[in-house]
Amino acid sequence: MENLLRKLDLTSLRLFVVVCQEKNIARAAEREFIAPSAVSRRIAEIETLIGLPVIERQSRGIAVTPVGETVLRYAQMIIADIEAMSAELSLFLSGAKGSVRVVANLSSIVQFLPEDVAAFERVFPNVHIDLEERHTADVLRLVDERGADLGICNATGLGAAEVEHVPYRTDRLALAVPRLHPRAHRYAAASRVAFADLLGERFVGLHDESALTRQLAVEAARAGARLDVKIRVSSLDALCRMVHAGLGVAVVPEQTAQLYLGTLDIAIVPLSDAWAVRQLVIVYKHREQLSASAAALVRFLSQQSG
């Protein structure tokens, strides 16, 4: 019996099950589109391995022996397990099951990803998404080094990064200002405000590693000035709360600031500068090397309104 595992093949078991169902070798062969002699040979091989008969050949068909009933019971379980495995593996191939590691910048996580990931998981409930917040530079590095399946960051950070990308969403930067700020009413009365007109203000900002901090520093330098940043924090939530406390003004994604209008004492005014409208992109190393689940997530996210 120790040879069963090595020598008993699935095709023989499947044909044996069909013979038992049809009670006739000729009908089983017709159903499987093979010669009756080939079916008989497969049955004989099973009997040789076991050392006992599994069927009794009769004039009008076959009868299953008690040994055959045992083989039939296990054969049906084995075939059912193989079919279940095949069905589950097909979910991986279609992208309906698997895991995807995503690294994304703060702006995309705060503004868009919670709702988009939740919507994706309603369509693909068996795909696990591991989402981690990283600065844009780290997003690109991790995707390039294959430390993540895909990333989401600002298009301005792409530079010479050796990754592929597709558009995801756009956001607009805005000024967040305390309502009791001396010039709050003037700012709030305007439909737009130019960044150059804010360079005399005291700012609160994110840490130096953030793409937003770097972008503001670049734009200030182009205007021949330097930002007066007194306080730096690590989250957009903390940034808005600092503005609420009157510790300075801040440039933040407009949609993020809108989340706090009902709870914090701030006003927001969109920036009029062209660079204040930013493109967020989905990045990955090579499209053809994405797993089915990762490719499904890329397709889903890239279809979201921008």
TrEMBL record:
GO terms for cellular component: cytosol. Keywords: DNA-binding, Transcription, Transcription regulation. The keyword Cell cycle does not apply. InterPro entries: HTH-type_LysR_regulators, LysR_HTH_N, LysR_subst-bd, WH-like_DNA-bd_sf, WH_DNA-bd_sf. It comes from the Bacteria. Coiled coil: none annotated. Residues 8-65 form the HTH lysR-type domain. GO terms for molecular function: DNA binding; DNA-binding transcription factor activity. SUPFAM superfamilies: Periplasmic binding protein-like II (SSF53850), Winged helix' DNA-binding domain (SSF46785). Pfam families: HTH_1, LysR_substrate. PANTHER family: HTH-TYPE TRANSCRIPTIONAL REGULATOR YBHD (PTHR30419), LYSR FAMILY TRANSCRIPTIONAL REGULATOR (PTHR30419:SF2). Belongs to the LysR transcriptional regulatory family. This is LysR family transcriptional regulator. The lineage of its organism: Bacteria, Pseudomonadati, Pseudomonadota, Betaproteobacteria, Burkholderiales.
